[in-house]
Amino acid sequence: MDAVISFVKENPTCAFFYALGGFTFLKFAIKTLVVFSETFVLPGTNLKNFGAGKGSWAGRDRCTFLCIARLTRWIVVTGASDGIGREYAIQLAKKGFNVLTVARNETALKSVTDEIASGTQGKAQSKTVVLDVSKSDHPGWEQLQQVLSEIRVSVLVNNVGKSHAHPVYFAEAESSELSDIIAINVNATVRITRMVLPGMVKQQNGLVLNIGSFSGVVPSPMLATYSGAKAFIDTFSTALAEEVQKDGILVQCINPYFVVSKMSKIRKPSVMIPTPDAFVRASLNKVGLSGGARFVGRPAASAPYWSHSLLEYFIGVLGWKQATVVYSHKLHRSIRKRVDKKLAREAKAQ
């Protein structure tokens, strides 16, 4: 100890920088420990806190449906016909919720309903609303409002989304595509949340999962409108989470990297690209945790899948954001070239 004191007195500048370096390393080590703990060790909030297991009414008197429906717990999943949305509906049904699925494809919704009935042996009830959320005057909006007035919603999954058909510079993009991206990703999320949230506030309990994207975390050239829309989801979620925390409502923006889906046009899973089943399972196991998004200044954000969590941590904490923007631009230019070549071949073949 005497030697340390002597060193500090004789070399105050060096001692200061040694202390600063030690503090910086300690801070980094603590952040890393927290992120790795949330990613690989700690369990998320138990879904029973939001009514899991209180959704089924199998064996009860069907004549009392409306009364029972107000007491049992429901989830609402938008964009539930395929991919991540479909998996949220199926997996949450298996955890004991009744399920209201919303999408524009009636046939696909029927398939989800059948799988829920089969997977839960008829213990979970499911309803569907056919709704094209890109159209503000679609009749499905009135039907959705009517169904919501009859049930008690504990979980809302705002999954419906639309990206560009392929990477494109903003100045070259079709106006109709840009309008649809805003209507589906932004307007529909806000409108449906506004329809559901007052009921959660009244019951002082609820979970809202808004599905974002890494494109909203890191600006994505050649996907500018989609990237901006997902950035809105991230900011909207953080602001809303602070508002309704006092009401016992948890709001999170779930940010996936690539996932096998029709939207991503990726068919084979890998370390960085999980199947919808694996991604949703991770998401439901990590409810309330942020993972790699813990220390990046977006309190409501979450990267629940392990490889996505580590990627977001390295981008955010290590400050690689600008490098990622440049990489994203290069990647999208490459994809666009392949798309153009494919279209040229198809046109030549006709």
What does this structure look like?
- Helices cover 53% and strands 10% of the residues.
- The longest helix has 29 residues, at 12-40.
- It contains twelve helices and seven strands.
- α10 (276-285) links the parallel β6 and β7.
- α1 packs across α2, α2 (12-40) runs antiparallel to α11 and α4 (83-94) runs parallel beside α5.
- It is an alpha/beta fold.
- The protein has a seven-stranded parallel sheet, with helices on both faces.
- The chain has one domain (47-349): 3-Layer(aba) Sandwich (Rossmann fold).
Q: How is this fold's topology laid out?
A:
Blueprint: H1 2-10, H2 12-40, H3 65-71, E1 74-78, H4 83-94, E2 98-103, H5 106-119, E3 126-130, H6 140-148, E4 153-158, H7 175-203, E5 206-211, H8 214-217, H9 224-244, E6 249-254, H10 276-285, E7 301-302, H11 306-317, H12 321-349
Parallel strand pairs: 1-2, 1-4, 2-3, 4-5, 5-6, 6-7
Helix-strand pattern: HHHEHEHEHEHEHHEHEHH
The assigned CATH architecture is 3-Layer(aba) Sandwich
Radius of gyration: 23 Å
The domain tally reads 1
What is the strand arrangement across the widest sheet?
Answer: 3-2-1-4-5-6-7
CATH topology: Rossmann fold
Number of beta strands? 7
Short overview:
This protein has helices at residues 2-10, 12-40, 65-71, 83-94, 106-119, 140-148, 175-203, 214-217, 224-244, 276-285, 306-317, 321-349, and strands spanning 74-78, 98-103, 126-130, 153-158, 206-211, 249-254, 301-302.
Quick tags:
single chain; 350 residues; alpha/beta; Rossmann fold; seven-stranded parallel beta sheet; 7 strands; 10% strand; globular; ketoreductase activity; Sc_DH/Rdtase_CS; NAD(P)-bd_dom_sf
